[in-house]
Design a protein that fits this description.
Blueprint (H helix, E strand, L loop, with lengths): L7 E2 L6 E6 L4 E5 L10 H9 L2 E8 L6 E9 L1 H7 L20 E6 L5 E8 L2 E9 L34 E6 L1 E6 L13 E5 L4 E7 L43 E2 L5 H13 L4 H13 L2 E6 L4 E4 L4 E5 L3 H4 L3 H18 L1 H4 L6 H19 L16 H15 L15 H15 L16 H6 L9
Parallel strand pairs: 13-14, 14-16
Antiparallel strand pairs: 1-2, 2-4, 3-10, 4-5, 5-6, 6-7, 7-8, 8-12, 9-12, 10-11, 15-16
Helix pairs in contact: 4-6, 6-8, 9-10
């Protein structure tokens, strides 16, 4: 489980990134010894006790973020040299140089697939290894008890490197950590934890990807496309880590959010890709509007037309910032205000029924197409008033008709009688709707211009 409140800044000049301590009840540590240092069961246990794993979240600009696991496995000599001054909480990607870290940094996908292993010596990147997937192929000989391997514990033939050409099966000892309540502490890492030596080593197909004669004060290639020696590998040979993306970020400002809050918000932004209508609103705000997102005292979230700000509840960011429906809700209000109604909306009270019902219809059209009929009409709340069920059912039937039973986004401008039907359902909602919205009076001549300009057969997608 990630401990988001204990995140550590891992930003580079081109990447936004954080390292997050994680609570683990069971984990396996690979005790790498690729440069053939002295090894024994006692040494491996000592190294395992000083090893730890964090969640690494990073992204470039507004592109889709990526999560990996990063594990630090210090060398035995480094541990002995530091002795009592060694603390896990002080070691991170940005501090390897200043702490003169010597040891390995392993990167894995969340599913456990190993990607890369970096060897540091005295705080400097010494070698880069990749762990290749050789599922079903197996090592040259059958696995043996790693304790029986003499002089080659977790080592490989390093006599001749060829810039990635040298690959071999490597026997990597495994240490298993079983905890009842362990979290990264620094001074007392063994509390509530037990270490177990695996009977068998783990054979892995490892390639040395370091160029010939590396390290070199003037290397023949750029080892750092992301401008950070400890993280350059993540750019996969270019400056475009991750995939996807959400266009320009000029329309939405998040400068007052903390790094962890920005990453929580990014989860909701990434989820917009799964709902075309939501993504379209986001793109319109990004390219045609201007809003600042901040944290503060409010119920869930609220858009203020006067200050052009969206304020999220500061006490429950893990819930509010990651909720894609909340983000779409408030961005639709930005769209209504800045691109459609302007001063008219500024003169209305907060939660005015005309503004909120139009937002509800927007969300229900998107939900009907993306999620099916089950969530449509869930903002009808007055269940004890006579006629509630029929009112809600008629509304859901109307949404079905608009979306061809969830098959496609509508062109509202081409639907005969749409304005009249919309106003009829709005007046019914005044009776059966959410208590926060029905206290205001319906403006009978305020037609749904925002909806009609959005759903006009010009969406950039229709799925």
């Amino acid at each position: 489980m990630p401990l988001w409140n204990l995140y550590k800044n891992a930003n580079t000049p081109k990447l936004t990134a954080i390292e997050v301590p994680i609570v683990q009840t069971r984990s396996e540590i690979s005790i790498y010894n690729l440069d053939q240092q002295e090894a024994s069961s006692e040494i491996n246990l000592a190294r395992a006790k000083k090893s730890f794993t964090r969640l690494l979240y990073y992204k470039q600009g507004n592109k889709t973020g990526r999560q990996l696991l990063v594990t630090y496995v210090p060398e035995y000599e480094y541990i002995m040299d530091k002795k009592d001054s060694y603390q896990k909480k002080n070691i991170q990607l940005r501090s390897l140089a200043s702490l003169n870290y010597s040891g390995y940094v392993e990167y894995r996908e969340l599913n456990g697939k190993k990607l890369s292993v970096l060897l540091f010596k005295n705080g400097q990147l010494n070698r880069r290894y990749s762990v290749k997937d050789r599922s079903g192929q197996g090592p040259p000989s059958s696995p043996r008890l790693w304790q029986q391997l003499s002089g080659s514990l977790g080592s490989m033939d390093v006599s001749a490197y060829g810039g990635g050409a040298n690959c071999d099966w490597v026997c990597v000892p495994q240490m298993v950590l079983i905890c009842t309540g362990y979290m990264e502490a620094g001074d007392n890492p063994d509390e509530d934890c037990d270490w177990y030596e695996s009977d068998y080593c783990n054979y892995e197909y490892v390639c040395d990807d370091s160029p010939p004669d590396y390290p070199d004060p003037d290397p023949p290639y750029d080892p750092n496309p992301c401008s950070d020696p400890s993280m350059y590998w993540m750019c996969e040979g270019n400056d475009d880590p991750g995939s996807g993306g959400n266009g320009s970020t000029d329309g939405i400002k998040t400068t007052t959010l903390s790094p962890s809050e920005k990453l929580l918000l990014q989860e909701a932004i990434d989820s917009l890709d799964n709902k075309c209508g939501f993504k379209t609103i986001y793109n319109k705000v990004m390219t045609e509007a201007n809003v600042e997102i901040r944290m503060g005292v409010t119920s869930i979230a609220v858009y203020n037309p006067d200050t052009k700000t969206i304020t999220y509840n500061e006490n429950i960011p893990e819930y509010t910032l990651t909720n894609v429906g909340t983000l779409a809700h408030e961005l639709f209000h930005v769209y209504q205000h800045q691109l459609i109604y302007g001063a008219t909306m500024e003169g209305l009270s907060p939660n005015h029924i005309n503004i909120e019902f139009e937002q509800i219809v927007f969300q229900d059209i998107v939900k009907r197409i993306s999620n099916g009929p089950s969530e449509v009409g869930d903002m009808f709340k007055q269940t004890t008033i006579a006629g509630f069920t029929d009112a809600k059912d008629q509304y859901k039937l109307w949404i079905d008709t608009l979306t061809s039973n969830g098959a496609a986004y509508p062109d509202l401008n081409s639907i005969s009688g749409f304005d009249a039907a919309y106003m009829a359902h709005l007046n019914v909602y005044k009776i059966y709707g959410h208590s926060s919205y029905i206290s205001s009076n319906v403006i009978q001549n305020m037609l749904p211009s925002a909806l009609k300009q959005l759903f006009n057969n010009n969406l950039d997608c229709n799925n």
